[in-house]
Amino acid sequence: MPRKWRTSAKTILPPLIPFVVLTLTGEWIVRAGIVPSYLLPTPTAVFRAIIDNRAELTRAMLKTSGSAFAGFALSTIIGIGIAVLLSSSRWVQRAFYPYAVFFQTVPIIAIAPLLVIWFGYGMRTVVASAFVVSIFPVIANTLNGILSTDPALRDLFRLYDASQLDTLIKLRFPAALPQILTGLRISSGLAVIGAIVGEFIGGDGIGSVIDVARTQQRVDKVFAAVLMASLLGLLLFGLINLVSTLTLRRWHASEQQP
Amino acid sequence: MELQCGPAVKSVALQLESVRKTFSNCVVIGDLNLQIDAGEFLAILGPSGCGKSTLLRMIANLAEPDTGRIDADPAAHRTAFVFQDAHLLPWRTVLDNVVLPLELARKNKAESHASAQAILEQVGLGDSASRYPNELSGGMRMRVSLARALVTEPSLLLLDEPFAALDEITRFHLEVRLRDLWQRLGMTVIFVTHSISEAAFLANRALVMTRRGGQIKLDRRIDLPAVRDNGLRSGAALGGEIAILLAAMEEE
Amino acid sequence: MNRRNFLASSFAAAPLCAILNACGKTPAGKLRLALDWKPEPEFGGFYAANYANHGLTVDILPGGSGTPTVQMIGAGSAEFGTVSADELVVARARGNDVVALFAVFQNCPQGIMVHPSPNMNSIGDVFRSGTVAIERGLPYARILEKKYGFDKVKIVPSPGGDISAFLHDPHFAQQCFVTSEPLAAMHAGVATKVFPISDSGYNPYTTVLATSGALLRDHPATARAMVEAVREGWQSYLASPTATNANMHGVNPSMDLATFAEVAEAQKPWIQTADTATNGLGTMTAARWDTLIAQLKDLGDISQPMNAAECFRLL
Predict the structure, then answer these.
(1) Chain C stretch 87-146, residues whose beta carbon is closer than 8 A to a beta carbon of chain A
(2) Residue B235 pLDDT
(3) CA torsion sign, A31 to A33 to A36 to A40?
(4) Direct distance between the N- and C-terminal alpha carbons of chain B, in angstroms, rounded to an integer
C-alpha cells in the first residue's frame, strides 16, 4: 500500500508544486497591487469566470474540440500517406519534399483569410486551419522514421525477396512507429492552435470567445478561455501518449520502465 | 522437419569463377576461384578488412561482383543468412520473428507456425515463443536468428561472424549446437569468422584469406572427427589444426 | 473604435511591462505615442505635428490588428495612445486610469457597409438576412444586437479592412470605417451603401488621444504641450496633407498615395464640425461622455458609477 502512494507521490508532486507556487504568487501580486487586475487576473477571478461562463465555454469547447480533432485526424492520415509516398523514391522525395516544407513555414495568420475565401465562414475553415498548421510534423517525422530503417533489416527482407509492399507494411512502418508517434505528439498541440487561429478569422468556438472577451476587456474571461484551450491540447497529447503506451509498451525503450 | 543423415549428395553447391570486387580503388576480392560442394561446412578466416564479409554478401546476392561469375546449383537454392547481430524485429514475438521468412513467401499460416515452433525446439527455445526480443539475452537472440534462418529449410546457410559478440561459454554452446544442426539437416554452410579456434572446431574445410587483395592463401581440409563436442577443445588434434591455420594467417 | 482582429501578443507581455514599469516613467525622455492602427489619414495630424517646437521628443508607434493601446498606457509601455471613447470608459471601469485629451473624430466614423439594394434602407434592414461581419465584442455591436437581434443573420468576425469577402458575396455586410472600406470597394468597381453607427444614436468620440492619469497629475505641462502640438499638427494636416501623406505612405505602403489623398479629404467632415470651429479641434463635451457612460451602463459593460469629468480633460 505505502509503495503505491510513494509512486503516486513521485508522479503527482513534481508538477503540482510549481503549479501551487505559481497560483499563490499570481493571486498575491495582483491583490498586493503590484500588477493591476486589468492586466493580469487573479487565479480566483479566472476560476470564477470559468464557473460563471461554463455554459458558453462548454459549448465553445465542444465546437473547437470537434474541429481540432478533425484537423488532426486529417493531418495524421494525409501526413502519413504523403510521407509513405515521399519515401518511395529518392527522386520523388527531392522533387516534392520542399513543397511539404511550405506547410511548416507559411504563417497561418497570413493564409487564414484565404482559407475563408475558399471554405467560407464556419467549421470547414477551422478544420482547414488546424490541418495546415499541424500536418508538417507528421510528414517530417514519419518520413524520417521510414527512411531510418536499419539497413541490415532491409537486407534481410531483400534476402527473402520481400515485395516493396511487404517491406513497407511489415518492416518500415512498424520500425517507424515510435517516430510517427513523436510527430503526432507535436502535431496534436498544433492542431488546437490552428483551430483557434481559424476561429479568430472564421468565427465560433473558443477562438471566438477569446476574441470577443478581449474586445470587451474581460481579461478574466480571456484567461479562462485560454485555459480551456490548453486543456484541450493536453487532452489530445494525453491520447497520443496512451496510444504510444499501448503499441510500444512491449518492445520500445521509450515506454519501458527503467 | 525431416532429419537427414549428414551431407547427402556430392554435388556442387556453389562455383565462383574469377570473381573480382573493388571498393573505391581498393581491391577487396581479387580474381577469386572457388568450388564448394553441397553439404560442406566451410569456414572463411581472415583478418578484418580482408573482404570475407563482402565475399559472403556476394554469395548471398546482396552485392554484385565487378567481374566474374557466381554460379549456384539451380536445383535447390534456398539461401539463409545469419548476421553478427541477431537483427530481430523488436515489435514481433520470438515466434513471429521466426515465422517471418515463411510469411514473406506467403506460406500457409498454420503450417508456418508449426514449423517455427519446431525449429525453436531444435535451438532450445521452445518455451520462449511468445516472448519479445528485448526480454532475451544476447545468446538467446542469436539462437532465434539461427532458427529464423533454418525455418525455410535452406540448402545454403551463410553466417557472418554470428557469435563474435557473445561471451565464450555461450559461444561454445552455440558452436556445438550449430554443428549438430548441420549434421542433422545437411545444408551447405559457409561460416565467416576471425576466430581461428572457432573455424577449426566447426568446419570440415577452412579458407584463409590474404590480408589484402582478397585472395585465398590457404584451402585446407580440417582433419578432425565428424562428431565434435566441447571435450575436443582441450585436445591436441584441435590444437594442431589451429596451429596450421595460425601459421597461414601470420605469414605475409 | 478600431478595426482589430487577432489576439495581440502584447496582451501577455502587458503584465510583465507593468511590473517593470511600476516605478514612474520620466517623460523628460522620449514620449511614446501608440497608434491603434496602421499609419493612415486618421492619424494625419499626429504625423504632421512638430513636437520639437513644443519641447517634446515623440516616438510614434504604428499599430495594427489588435494593438491594445489602453492596456499599453496602463502598463506604461506608452505614455500616450489613440483609443476610442467607449474602450476608455470600459478600461476605467476595470481600474485602468486613462484620460482622454483630444478627440480627432467628433463623430464616430464606424459603419456597416452593404451592397445597395431596394430593401436596404436603414441599419435595421442589415440584420434581416445574409452574413454580417462585425466584431461582436464591441459595444456598438451589442447595441445593434439588442436593438435588432442577430438571430436572422450569420455573424462572422470582421476581416479588418479586407474587402475580398464583401466583393464576392452580394449578401455580405461588414463593419467599416466610413472613409476607408467603401472607397476601396468603389475602386474595385463595387457600389456600396453605408449606414453609420451614429445613426442609431451611439456616437462615441473616435481616435482619441489619451494618457494615464498619473502623467496628467505628475507632468501636466508635458500633457499640455502634447495637446498643443497635436492640435497644430491637425490644423496643418487638414490644410495640406500631401507631405504628411507621403511620410505615412513610407511607413505603410499598403495604401497608395491616391487613396491617402482621397481619404484625407473624405474624413474632414467627421473631424471639423461646428463644435470644433467654436472650441478648437479635438474638443469634447461632458454631455457626450455622459451619454456614452449611460449607454454602456445600459448595455451592462460597466456597473460602477462613473462621471464624465474623470474621463476627459481639456487642456
Answers:
(1) 87, 90-91, 94-96, 131, 135-138
(2) 83
(3) negative
(4) 46
Q: What are the residues whose beta carbons fall under 8 Å from the beta carbon of B213, sequence distance 6 or more?
A: B27, B30
Residues of A in contact with B133 (CB under 8 A): 251
Q: Is the CB of C157 less than 8 angstroms away from the CB of A208?
A: yes
Contact call for B and C: 3+ CB–CB distances under 8 Å? no
The residues, ordered by sequence, that sit 6+ positions from A238 with a Cβ below 8 Å of its Cβ are: none
Contact of C154 with chain A, judged by CB distance below 8 Å, is answered with yes
CATH fold for the domain made of A68-249 = MetI-like fold (1.10.3720)
Choose among C137, C138, C162: nearest Cβ to A213: C137
Question: What's residue C56's pLDDT?
Answer: 94
ipTM of the modeled complex: 0.81
Element (H, E) at A185: helix A173-202
User: Is the CB of A34 less than 8 angstroms away from the CB of C154?
Assistant: no
| Per-residue pLDDT at C154 exceeds 60 | yes
Q: Chains A and C: how many Cβ contacts under 8 Å?
A: 85
CA–CA dist B156, B12 (Å, integer): 12
H or E element: which one contains C100?
Answer: strand C98-105
Contact assessment for residue C75 and residue A40, using Cβ atoms and an 8 Å cutoff: no
User: Where in chain C is CATH 3.40.190.10?
Assistant: 10-108+204-311, 110-200
**pLDDT tens, A118-168?**
898 889 999 999 999 999 999 999 999 999 999 889 988 988 889 999 999
pLDDT of residue B57: 86
Which letter does DSSP use for residue C25 in this model?
P
> Which of A153, A156, A167, A173 to probe by mutation at the B interface, max B CB count within 10 Å?
A156
In this predicted structure, what is the pLDDT of residue B223? 84
CA atoms within 13 A on the CB side of C155: 16
Mean pLDDT of A41-61: 94
A215 contact C CB<8A: yes
Q: Are strands C172-177 and C58-61 parallel, antiparallel or unpaired?
A: unpaired
Q: Which of A159, A162, A175 is opposite residue B62, by nearest beta carbon?
A: A159
B25: pLDDT strictly greater than 90 = no
Compute the nearest-CA separation of A251 from chain B (Å).
6
Domain boundaries, chain A: 68-249
Residue A208 to residue C165, Cβ atoms within 8 A? no
- pTM for the structure as a whole: 0.82
* pLDDT tens string B110-164: 999 999 999 999 888 999 999 999 999 988 999 999 999 999 888 899 999 999 8
Helix (H, G, I), strand (E, B) or coil at C61: strand
Beta carbons of B104 and A162 less than 8 Å apart: yes
Residue A38 near chain C (CB below 8 Å): yes
Superfamily of domain B10-77+190-252: P-loop containing nucleotide triphosphate hydrolases (3.40.50.300)
Q: How far apart are CA A20 and CA A220, in angstroms?
A: 19
Mean pLDDT of chain C: 89
The CATH architecture assigned to C10-108+204-311 reads: 3-Layer(aba) Sandwich (3.40)
φ, ψ of residue A104 in degrees (nearest 5): -75, -40
Residues 255 to 284 of C: which have CB under 8 A from any A CB?
Answer: none
| Domain C110-200 class in CATH | alpha beta
